[in-house]
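Quiz preparation item.
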C-alpha cells in the first residue's frame, strides 16, 4: 500500500513539471519565424478536423511531420515555442514566446535581437 501511494505521489509530482513547448528536431536550427509559419499551417489543418479525430491530434501530427517535437519543461529556452494545447486555443493560439520570463539582456538567441537594428529592443547589441 505504501509503495502504491509513493508511486502515485511521484507521478503527480512529475506531471506538473512545466508546460509543453515545441522545439526543432535534428541539427538544423529553426527559429521563431519558422515555428510561426509551420504552426499556422498546422492550425489551419487542425481546424478541418473530421471523423472524430481531435484538432490536437491533427496539429501534433502535422508539427511532427514538419520536424518539431513536443517537450515539457518548466524553463523553456528561446528555441522552444508554445503552440495550442487544447481545442479552445485553436481559435486564438498562444504567442509562441509566452509563458517564459523576460529576455535576458544581450542574449544572442533572443529572437527579438535578430530584427533590423532600428527595430531591436534596447537590451540587444546594435
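Solution:
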Amino acid at each position: 500500500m505504501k509503495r502504491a501511494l509513493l508511486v502515485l505521489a511521484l507521478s503527480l509530482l512529475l506531471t506538473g513539471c512545466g508546460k509543453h513547448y515545441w522545439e526543432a528536431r535534428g541539427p538544423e536550427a529553426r527559429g521563431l519565424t519558422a515555428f510561426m509559419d509551420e504552426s499556422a499551417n498546422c492550425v489551419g489543418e487542425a481546424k478541418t478536423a473530421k471523423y472524430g479525430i481531435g484538432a490536437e491530434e491533427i496539429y501534433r501530427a502535422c508539427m511532427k511531420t514538419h520536424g518539431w517535437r513536443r517537450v515539457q519543461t518548466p524553463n523553456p529556452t528561446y528555441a522552444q515555442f508554445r503552440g495550442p494545447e487544447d481545442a479552445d486555443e485553436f481559435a486564438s493560439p498562444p504567442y509562441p514566446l509566452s509563458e517564459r520570463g523576460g529576455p535576458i539582456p544581450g542574449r544572442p538567441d533572443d529572437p527579438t535581437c535578430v530584427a533590423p537594428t532600428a527595430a531591436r529592443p534596447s537590451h540587444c547589441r546594435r
